[in-house]
Amino acid sequence: MSDDTVELEARLEEQEAFEPPEEFVEQANVSDASIYEEFEENWPECWEQAADLLTWEEEYDAVLDDSDAPFYEWFTDGKLNASANCLDRHLDDRGDEVAIDWIGEKGETRTYTYGDLHREVNEFAAALRELGVEEDDVVTMYMPMIPELPVAMLACARIGAPHSVVFAGFSAEALATRMESADSEYLVTCDGYYRRGDLLKHKEKTDEGLAQVGHDVSDVVVVDRGGDEYDHDLADNEHDYGDLVAEQEGAEVEPVTRDAEDMLFLMYTSGTTGEPKGVKHTTGGYLSYVSWTSQAVLDIKPDDTYWCSADIGWITGHSYIVYGPLALGTTSVMYEGTPDYPERDRLWEIVEEYGVDIFYTAPTAIRAFMKWGTEYPDGHDLSSLRLLGTVGEPINPRAWKWYYKHIGDESCPIVDTWWQTETGGMMVTTLPGVGTMKPGSAGPPLPGIDAKIVDTKGDEVEAGRAGYLTVNKPWPGMLRTVYKNDDRYISEYWEEYSDSDADEWVYFPEDGAKIDDDGYITVLGRVDDVLNVSGHRLGTMEIESAIVGVEGVAEAAVVGGNHPVKGEAVYAYVITEEGQGEDDAMRDRIVAGVEDAIGPIARPEQVVFTPELPKTRSGKIMRRLLEDIANEEELGDTSTLRNPDVVADIQAKVGDD
Ligand code: WT7
């Protein structure tokens, strides 16, 4: 390293605050700090600004109806269609502009202009109708990052059929439980897709899943991604996507008029209990909110080339690959594969080739880039980049600074955006054209978002002290309920801190956080039994029940251990039944059991066999202690345990592995 570089590194290491570059501020969609005050003084009418980004068929009567809180309604009686907002309204001015630039892992590309996307969405919407899909029928999608996924989502939106996208990496069983929970009778899937050069036989997994669905599935649409590489049969109720679309060539489907509060989609996510929750998002509030945050936080303009590297199977992809960017009429890059195939510079090659302006990714990816080394980004011209973003988990200052320097060349602001599946869109982050950035801290709540850090009694904690993050006013992108389970909606999110007698409702996202004197929030992580593995949310109970389902396992406890790239990794402590081997074969069966029940993302990093689990005198498993053991941290007082002797035993085993 030259002296200059050393000096630069040293300066960056100490620097705690970064101002947005002048050049960025000058062109930013939002650059005036008065927006915070303006939103506060004019709440909830401030959210008209978000609704104004959309085209409404009928104006709404009220911005917010809180008469049945916490079952809030936004933009009541407004009418609109999400697909018309993402497609039709752009046709006149931007029909020939690129909506999606798709890149397959093998290097093939497909370009969809807004006109192309509109055409295919119409054709597929007509096909879905012909299969019998009616307004309000839930259509499940089990698809990887291929263009037919956003096409199918928008086709559903067009005919008013809510979609439920299941991440393609989830297991057959996970698909089946989600289809059952949503009473979904239609599935759109594909035969296969590519990962590190190999064709994954997705259709086989789909078939396994379908065999486990307890009700009749009326139709399955299969996209042919594998081509000649993968021959598969289609059953009587299965249809080839290409044939269906070809049969509908040139079809036009009038977008169905949806009420603002009509469901746009369901997204299943993990919670404290074993059952994933179906988070319900609506047409008016959600679409307004993701459009507004795409504009204000991601600074998206129609002429930009924007790239969010998330998978559409998660909420980040729904909000910030599909709905927000398309509603704003921008050009998005969509990439099928992994960042290190064929080489570790794949993403930077794409940024250079497509002239990407805005790049949004996850801290886990940034930590992997850091590990691989600077030669990969250094080999490419990344000067098209204007703004960088991260989402999904806390980003440590070192990774933030690496991203700032080696990807952004110290000339791009970084937005560290805190939000959740349930919030629909971003909630806590700096506005890139307004706020000072502090690495490691997401920033202040967005304008109009009333977030506070409180103690267990709900009283605000002092600056610098850890507490619980709460949101004290509703916002348009919020979930409306847990699908078919209003009680769970209340108990999961509202019961903890609300005073229902006083009709005061406080949303609890189940994250720990602290705030500084400038009102910047640092999110510390989940406080419930949910792990964040590579930015993916996994319930410990789901993993435990998968392990206990393995023959020969008596009991299991799952906790998160620190991991340098993944953030958290799954540690499983397992008690086997009498006479069962505690060997590699058993370990393999446990890992396979978890992969079958959930998917490879939940695969345990370590399986530790133990004769007992540390328990309190009342019989509760001491998870905190297991976590400390996984992280090889000093253990506090263990004398109150019912079985203190077991601790040293387990510690020795974790060290061994
Ligand atoms: C959980 C939500 C939001 C889309 C991807 C994940 C954690 C998210 C941040 C951030 C610290 C973060 C929280 C949250 N999280 N963003 N910028 N800093 N933590 O969505 O699967 O619903 O998970 O991810 O713990 O509760 P999700």
Largest sheet: 7 strands, mixed
Q: What is the CA-atom radius of gyration, in angstroms?
A: 25 Å
Strand content: 15-25%
Task: Please give the count of helices.
Answer: 22
What does this structure look like?
The chain has 657 residues and is of the alpha/beta class. Helices cover 31% and strands 21% of the residues. It contains 22 helices and 29 strands. The strands form eight sheets. The chain has a seven-stranded mixed β-sheet with strand order 5-4-17-16-18-19-20, with helices on both faces. Helix 17 (397-407) links the parallel strand 19 and strand 20. Helix 19 packs across helix 20. The chain is globular. The two termini are 37 Å apart. The mean pLDDT is 95. The structure holds 5'-O-[(S)-butoxy(hydroxy)phosphoryl]adenosine.
Top keywords for this entry?
657 residues; alpha/beta; 7-stranded mixed beta sheet; binds 5'-O-[(S)-butoxy(hydroxy)phosphoryl]adenosine
Concise structural overview:
By secondary structure, the protein is of the alpha/beta class. It is 31% helix and 21% strand.
Task: Produce the secondary structure layout.
Elements lengths: L2 H12 L7 H6 L6 H8 L6 H4 L10 E4 L7 E4 L2 E2 L1 H5 L4 H4 L3 E6 L5 E5 H18 L7 E4 L5 H12 L3 E3 L6 H10 L4 E5 L2 E3 L2 E3 L1 H10 L7 E5 L14 E3 H7 L10 E2 L3 E7 L7 E6 L1 H13 L8 E4 L6 H13 L3 E5 L10 H9 L3 E4 L1 H10 L2 H4 L8 E5 L5 H11 L6 E4 L33 E4 L12 E5 L14 H8 L17 E5 L5 E6 L3 E4 L2 E4 H9 L4 E11 L3 E10 L7 H14 L8 E4 L13 H8 L15 H11 L1
Parallel strand pairs: 4-17, 6-7, 6-8, 7-14, 8-11, 11-12, 16-17, 16-18, 18-19, 19-20, 28-29
Antiparallel strand pairs: 1-2, 3-13, 4-5, 9-10, 14-15, 21-22, 22-23, 23-24, 25-26, 27-28
Helix pairs in contact: 7-8, 7-11, 9-10, 12-13, 15-17, 19-20
